[in-house]
Amino acid sequence: MSDKKVIRLRRARRSRLKMRELEAVRLCVYRSSQHMYAQVISADGSKVLASASTLDESLRSGKTGNIEAAKQVGQLVAERAKAAGVTQVAFDRSGFKYHGRVKALADAAREGGLEF
How does it assemble (predicted)? Predict the structure, then answer.
């Protein structure tokens, strides 16, 4: 693995350990060059309660690797999480910097009713 990826995964592990210690339901985000993925994972990490990505049929029509697509994923995951009965989550950015698409997804999820 490249040093850049190893450093990102180390940051992710550090934050995930803290979230596990606090026993928080987490909103986990992953971004690739072409897509955005978001999952709401139970406090013990054993179950995915809700998920959304740019691979979903409703979001796949337009571009999938930009800020607008990330906003749509954030709204959709918030909608599905609320349907599953989850309103309070911890934001797990998976070691990615909090800007651009990651920030757009988080802001849209907050507007959709999730509390971080």
Answer: Part of the 50S ribosomal subunit; part of the 5S rRNA/L5/L18/L25 subcomplex. Contacts the 5S and 23S rRNAs.
